[in-house]
Description:
Helix 7 (227-240) crosses helix 9 (281-293). This protein has 15 helices and 18 strands. Helix content is 33%, strand content 20%. The two termini are 27 Å apart. By secondary structure, the protein is α+β, with helices and mostly antiparallel strands. It folds into three domains: 13-86, Uridine Diphospho-n-acetylenolpyruvylglucosamine Reductase, domain 2; 93-211, Uridine Diphospho-n-acetylenolpyruvylglucosamine Reductase, domain 3 (2-Layer Sandwich); 218-400, 3-Layer(aba) Sandwich (Vanillyl-alcohol Oxidase, Chain A, domain 3). The chain has helices at 18-22, 46-58, 111-119, 137-143, 150-153, 188-192, 227-240, 252-261, 281-293, 305-316, 318-325, 340-354, 384-399, 418-421, 424-437, and strands spanning 13-15, 39-42, 63-66, 83-86, 93-97, 102-106, 123-124, 160-166, 172-176, 201-208, 210-211, 218-224, 246-251, 272-278, 298-302, 327-330, 360-363, 368-375. It is globular and about 65 Å long. The model has no long low-confidence stretch (mean pLDDT 96). Bound molecules: flavin-adenine dinucleotide. Pfam families: FAD-oxidase_C (PF02913), FAD_binding_4 (PF01565). Its cofactor is FAD. It comes from Tsukamurella conjunctivitidis. GO terms for molecular function: FAD binding; oxidoreductase activity.
Amino acid sequence: MVSLESFPEITGSVLTDPDVMAAYAVDHCSPVHGAVPLAVVLAETTEDVAAAAGWCYANDVVIVPRGAGSGLAGGASAIEGCVIISLAKMNAVKEINAQDQYAIAEAGVINADLDRAVREHGLMYPPDPSSFEICSIGGNVATNAGGLRCVMYGVTREYVLGLTVVLPDGRIIRTGRRTVKGVTGYDLTQLLVGSEGTLGIVTEVTVKLRPAPVIPPTTVAASFPDVVSAAAAVAAVVGTGVVPALMELMDRRTLECVEALRPFGLEDETRAMLIGQGSTPEDAAVLAREFEAAGAHYTVVSDDPAEAAELLAVRRAAFHAYEHAGNIFSEDVGVPRSQLPEMFARIEAISAKYGVDIPTCAHAGDGNLHPTLIYPRGEREVPQAIWDAADEVFQAALALGGTLTGEHGVGVLKARWVGEELSDDVLELHRGIKAVWDPKNLLNPGRGF
Ligand SMILES: Cc1cc2nc3c(=O)[nH]c(=O)nc-3n(C[C@H](O)[C@H](O)[C@H](O)COP(=O)(O)OP(=O)(O)OC[C@H]3O[C@@H](n4cnc5c(N)ncnc54)[C@H](O)[C@@H]3O)c2cc1C
């Protein structure tokens, strides 16, 4: 084991107590158990990160970058003998430029804190993962996170203008720009977005902002007799050409899990719930019309922001409710939106075939589903039926023209399936890019692809 004696002085702190480090060794992905790290660095500056990375490079020590640890794919879990570099203490919003509509945030800033800060200037930071109160901007960049508002505004990628990044050997680089346009050189900023901590450690992010809407959106919530007709309603809305401000779907088992955690009055007849928002009352009327045409039992339309927040709190509670129900193997498949009804039908069939509980919610407007396979909390290893059912869900998504992961990333959990989506030639290019950025393969090795 490498000795930490020569570890450089940094502004932040270096943890080595095994009990304390255990909290940094895992994320929210139950199947991936973190190994024992050598140390956890709580960086406070970009220079801290650079010093720690440089030491790791010189001593051939693996690095795991870590944001807030809310990931669902095991990407921030510890590798045996690694140094975890946590960005959590780098949580300052350094600049908000209202005139040019951008902000510069340290990587550890919590997503919702950034949005709250820019709202004071009449602006918004649109990408809002359900985990917005517990995930960091750096983690959002590393996973190209999506969220509820992304159906209208686009995902993290569309908002990242520039980055400060520490390379695996400790060099500090800046990519991108503050301008609206800019095409100098290869777009390394966008290469880093979604790279899951395998190419560089992001320490600062320059994000694009938008004016916050002046009129609150109109919310439409509907109860359906089954999840397939709710999914058909989503496909029908997409067919109208109206872009909803939000469109989230929950199946019966998801609603039951949320009801068990924070009761909201789930009705017996509700087998699925769709929550949509229109940025104008006219758009909302189109949503309500399509929901009813697809067979909704009842539809509620509201322009009361408090009521909307209450409904969305049910959706945002879904993952916590799944975690409350047991250990979770969280999938994140995406399909073309016309295929949503078929994908939901296949998930129901797979659940019945394997006798596995698979509550599913979806950023339905994006065709991004979260089938979440639940197994007993006491089981340390993932039961074979879960692996088999998970495999069939992935295969179903790919067969319908979809993808393995819409927003959570590959991490450790999905690495075994990547070759099913990416061809050998494409994987070879990935390996080439990785070798240029990280020639010693020390940065989050084995994650992402
Ligand atoms: C309740 C709940 C709801 C969720 N809802 C959503 C959702 O709606 N949409 C969505 O997209 N995700 C969602 N997630 C997943 C998760 O919140 C996102 O993946 C988020 O972007 C992770 O951010 P983090 O700061 O927690 O990153 P971490 O979990 O710490 O890390 C995630 C990955 O990014 C890398 N990384 C982290 N920070 C950096 C950095 N500064 N530089 C380089 N690499 C880094 C890590 O190595 C790891 O590979 C949810 C999770 C939970 C628990």
